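Bumping with the actual sequence this time:
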Amino acid sequence: MNTTDTLTIKRKHLTWIIFLLLGFGYFSAMSNLEVHNFWKSLIVFMPMQVGAIIYVTYLRWSRR
């Protein structure tokens, strides 16, 4: 295993750790949010929708 492989593995681990921390923070914020459950359920899905839009846009641009 050379150094570029270990750097790639470390970068992947760092990315997962950052996403995990962001998820914990988002869950904590949603738990403390005092709004009606209907609005809370809509707000919870916003990051997934934004992520899906970014992913689809990236796929379209990478095909060109």
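The tokens above came from a reply further down the thread. The CA atoms of residues 55 and 61 lie 10 Å apart.
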